[in-house]
Amino acid sequence: MKHLFHIFAAMLCIVCASCTRGTIYSHYEPLPLEGWEADSVLSYEFAVADTLSAYDIVLNLRHSENYPNQNFWVFASLWRDSVCISSDTLDYFLADQRGRWLGNGFGSRRDMPMLYKRSLRFPLSGDYRICLQHGMREPLLRGVSDMGVSVSLSEE
């Protein structure tokens, strides 16, 4: 029995390590229960040491099934120091044409990963910042509980 426990513990460690392999940054920012204000900007800061490797940046939206829209517009910008490297207006579909939610989840909560940048090579090592602001027409966006960013080595 003791031997079986050690095998299970080793396998669990391997699985956990393989799930995060290559991730240099991952963080979720919780949003207020009453909603995400249109003028509220979320900021995510991370450090890059390796300028030779390519990275994927994924935005992670957590929303409830009460989210009132099929899509999600977001203004995203990537900064190094006080210089904006890129600024994008992105539109992601959260539900198909029949209204079925995409992404993962169970119950009333859904997690939707959305690719922001693929195979990005950072020009210089150092600190970077991603700023996100919702671009929906509603001044107070309801149904979104968290917004996250993850930066991982690209599989190219």
Q: Could you give the order of the helices and strands?
A: HEEEEEEEEEEE
Q: Strand pairing plus helix content: what structural class?
A: mainly beta
| Multimerization status | single chain
> Under the CATH scheme, which architecture would be assigned?
Sandwich
Tally of distinct domains: 1
Largest sheet: 5 strands, antiparallel
Highlighted features:
Jelly Rolls; globular; 156 residues; mainly beta
Q: How would you characterize this protein structure?
A:
There is one protein chain. This protein is mostly beta strands and 156 residues long. It has one domain (22-153): Jelly Rolls (Sandwich), CATH 2.60.120. It has one helix at 2-19, and strands at 23-30, 36-37, 42-48, 55-64, 71-80, 83-93, 104-106, 109-120, 126-134, 140-141, 144-153. Strand 7 (104-106) and strand 8 form a beta hairpin. Residues 2-19 have low confidence and may be disordered.
